[in-house]
């Protein structure tokens, strides 16, 4: 088998349940419902072994199924994976061609496996520049798995966080100009409706592999309050047990969403009144003062 032929070979799918591997039992309230993953380190993993970068992508694609199986086993409801960013078009033409062609083949093969696991597949990203053959496979995967009720797996391909917000803003501006939307009615829920996947849950746990500590323009809106978890492992070495470790770390954190409790005080104040008076700025304007 030539190197090119091997690069395009899809690894065998892992089983949904691996003998001897059991996820930790975490309280439902302490379990992340939505986990987002930046699957970084494929190329470096391959180069460190004297292999072409494409070999890292090949192994990494197979590994995604193992992590998805682990998400199902522990009880995660939604998993988003950063498969190809809008910035990845800057990579060498050869690597981009491999990723697009391989993604097309992987989608065709893995779709049936994920469908048998009751996984619902959703594509999240931009249409421009994306290969039409890849887009067809994505749409077909969405169609085939549309009625599944298990894990929601968001495949973020040709995706960028800033691009998503810019596209949403442009669509909102067009609807305001056309009279379909009032500017005064725009709020956070409005913006959510214009994102690529309006029904996406807020990200609870944001994982990045590859020993890098940045979010890289991934799900910026949905990850506003996400807990961050950085793994030194390259993506091909990050499996379901590593996902479970991340979930355990998440379960041990306290999420306050901007609120806080002073443990020294026995009684919390009932409000945040203005010590100078009871009238708010809004009431003063309303009364014409």
Highlighted features:
single chain; 289 residues; alpha/beta; 6-stranded parallel beta sheet; disordered N terminus; disordered C terminus; metal-binding
Describe, in plain words, how this protein is organized in 3D.
This protein has about 290 residues and is an alpha/beta fold. The protein is built from nine helices and six strands. Strands 3-4-2-1-5-6 form a six-stranded parallel sheet, sandwiched between helices. The model is unreliable at about 1-5 and about 280-289 (pLDDT under 50). InterPro entries: UPP_synth-like, UPP_synth-like_sf.
Number of helices, counting only DSSP H or I runs of 4 residues or more: 9
| Low-pLDDT runs | 1-6, 280-289
Strand content: 5-15%
Determine the fraction of residues in helical runs and give it as a percent range.
Answer: 25-40%
Largest β sheet strand count, sense and barrel closure: 6 strands, parallel
End-to-end separation in angstroms reads 82 Å
Order of helices and strands: HEHHEHEHEHHEEHH
Determine the structural class based on helices, strands and strand pairing: alpha/beta
The neighbouring-strand order within the major sheet is 3-4-2-1-5-6
The Rg value, from CA coordinates, equals: 22 Å
Integer average pLDDT:
88
* Shape estimate: globular
Number of strands: 6
GO biological process, one term: polyprenol biosynthetic process
Cofactor: Mg(2+)
Active site: 40, 88
Binding site for Mg(2+): 40, 227
